Automatic annotation (TrEMBL):
Name of this chain's protein: Secernin-2
Cytoplasm found in the keyword field: no
UniProt-listed InterPro entries: Peptidase_C69
Signal peptide: 1-19
Taxonomic path: Eukaryota, Metazoa, Ecdysozoa, Arthropoda, Hexapoda
Signal is among the record's keywords: yes
Keywords: Signal
Stated family: Belongs to the peptidase C69 family. Secernin subfamily.
Amino acid sequence: MSGICGEAFVVLAPLTATAQTVIYGRNGLAGQGSDVSEVHFYPASEASGPVKCDSAEVDAAATFSVILSKPAGVWGAESGSNEKGVCIGLTFSEGHPVDGKLNATDLVRLGLERASSAAEAVDVLTSLSAGAGPDGESKDSPKAAFVICDGSEVWLLNIVGSLWAAQKVTSSSLALKPGLSVGAQIDRSSDDLGEKLKSGGLWDGSGELNFGGVFGLDATRSWPGSEPGAEGSYGLAQIFESLRAAGADQKALSSHVSVLSGGGGLSCHWFTATPDPLESVFKPFVFTPGAKISPLTKAPEGESQTLLHKLHGNRKWEAVGDLLRSLEGTCVDEVNRFISEHSGEPNQELDELMKDCVEAEVKFYR
């Protein structure tokens, strides 16, 4: 899959309203792929035979449960989370996929299925992407940029052909547009990165190596809406506001938010599963042994749209918007209260949380 992009926003402690928490948000952006997004849940599984991805086949491995936001009809994902509290988002992809090599959306899904921490996800993605590009690097090599989070740390990973660079985020907030997000702070990289860039004529070796700068693809952007400021002030309402403010600037597709607990508490993941966050509502999901989501967020066999997307497309927002936003606000309050009152152990009361919210939303569109 080529041309899938998104804007991502991350807030870390001490700015988050809850201690030991990382908040991740992403808006998908219109590109070369489908404008229809599906949300799929896949339970954990044991290894059983080769895994057939969209663009390649890889060896099997045991997988964690994952929830994925994905373009309709794609095997991989553009954003998602797993039961271990790891979140991966694709912010940029460019270039034609190489036959027989994993593409960017394949890597998002495989990373979530196989990694139990953000740092391990960097290992998984870079191992799987080894040789993902053609021999020799150029400015035309396939490119991809990922944001990788857990409840304790955040990494940026950029891959260009067979070269890669990763940065551990040390700031308290981060706003990214499509582009290569790793600059001069390179904490991990493929072997002999500087030498290979020089031998490929991509860098002259003078000054400090800036990975994104070498390719002229800077990813920094200003914060939309109210920028995170005071300690302990940024929570769900604020990340929803930020994504909606960013979505007002350009056509945004579906949105994903994860509040990742680093202190043993429950993590919660929120998806619109519909385009335009200004006229969409976020629905919550929590990993439990019996988790289920609504079939309305998946395109039926042989069809290109989900039923939720189709009904949302015919919405009369001026008639239902206030009611749906009120429903979203009530849901946020109830989920936050439940999480604050319970330990990190999954609870069967949350098994059908997202399913119930999707089906409640649909009633407003019929």
